[in-house]
Design brief:
Alpha-Beta Plaits, four-stranded antiparallel β-sheet, 2 domains, Rossmann fold, 10 helices, alpha/beta, about 300 residues, elongated, six-stranded mixed β-sheet
Length: about 300
């Protein structure tokens, strides 16, 4: 996708403008799991909706499976699907009825429809809840049903908008496992949005940070940690306390000392730790304890979201 832009107009005479996307550029490899991270209102859902052919961009182009999402939307819709953490179905329908309804919309009928619905009910552990109406299902079961619905047409590209939103940890783990299984077994390309850094790090081959409608950074989790120079933290317990001059050492970004404990933020712990230990030894300082903390993806997110 290239230079995608979308502005929403609201208010009296639609004079208030909100730029949801401002020239977003992105490339996703086929068969990858790609994560979109960003604060609320960053443009994540708008971007997914455009790629899923549910929304027209004001500017820019995007191609999926070789087809333009605007000019050739009809050609790719049967090869895509989307599930949202805020999905909702007719409250009085039971799981099999929900899947059967959407299955018919995707062109499934008769034995093929019954077989596909049965397969998905079993896969997502919905068989014990066949008699339960949608409004009586737990949040976790509703999420599983939404994911099952999104797989009815066996999509080559799957969009997931906050797939584990509001779920208990044990349910989230199961959902993440099912998402990873999709890529492993079928080679499905998956593009997901999430607020959970652990989820993104566990599932995604590559991640993009979006803020204010712009892609600020993109790469693997490790790439992003290197790109956004937060620094590694070396935590030490010293005897005696750290001498003066520590903050002037090469690569030292910040030093915080409290009694016999000192935290040094450095550009690279791999490079600076040996230098630091040698310097302390030369100054007659004994290191009682040493721990290294590398930046987490959450810290990268906080830095970019400022």
């Amino acid at each position: 996708m290239r230079d995608l832009a979308k502005t929403f107009r609201s208010g009296w005479l639609r004079r208030r403008e909100t730029e949801a996307l401002r020239g977003a550029n992105l490339r996703v490899e086929r068969g990858a799991i790609f994560g979109l991270l960003g604060p609320n209102g960053a443009g994540k859902t708008t971007l997914l909706s455009i790629l899923a052919t549910l929304l027209l961009p004001d500017r820019g182009t995007a191609t999926i499976l070789g087809h333009d999402v605007v000019r050739e939307a009809f050609a790719i819709r049967r090869r895509l699907n989307m599930a949202s953490g805020n999905a909702s179905f007719v409250w009085s329908l039971r799981p099999a009825e929900v899947l059967s309804f959407y299955g018919r919309l995707y062109g499934l009928h008769g034995r093929a429809l019954r077989s596909r619905v049965g397969e998905l009910l079993e896969r997502f552990e919905l068989l014990p809840h066949l008699k339960t109406e949608y409004n009586e299902l737990s949040t976790g079961l509703k999420q599983r049903l939404a994911l099952a619905k999104a797989l009815l047409n066996e999509p080559e590209v799957l969009f997931l908008d906050e797939p584990t939103l509001g779920l208990d940890p044990d349910v989230s783990i199961r959902i993440r496992g099912q998402i990873a299984e999709l890529r492993r077994e079928r080679g499905t390309t998956i593009i997901l949005t999430t607020h959970y850094m652990r989820e993104a790090e566990e599932l995604c081959d590559r991640i993009a940070f979006i803020k204010g409608g712009r892609i600020l950074a993109e790469g693997s989790a490790d790439d992003l940690k290197r790109q956004i120079r937060i620094g590694d933290v070396i935590a030490l317990r010293l005897e005696p306390a750290a001498p003066a001059g520590l903050a002037a050492l090469p690569g030292m970004m910040q030093v915080q000392a409290r009694g016999d404990r000192v935290e040094c933020t450095v550009d690279s712990s791999e490079k600076r730790l040996p230098e630091l230990l040698r310097w302390l030894a030369d100054h007659g300082v004994l290191v009682r304890d040493c721990q290294v903390h590398e930046p987490e993806l959450e810290e990268v997110f906080v830095e970019l979201a400022r």
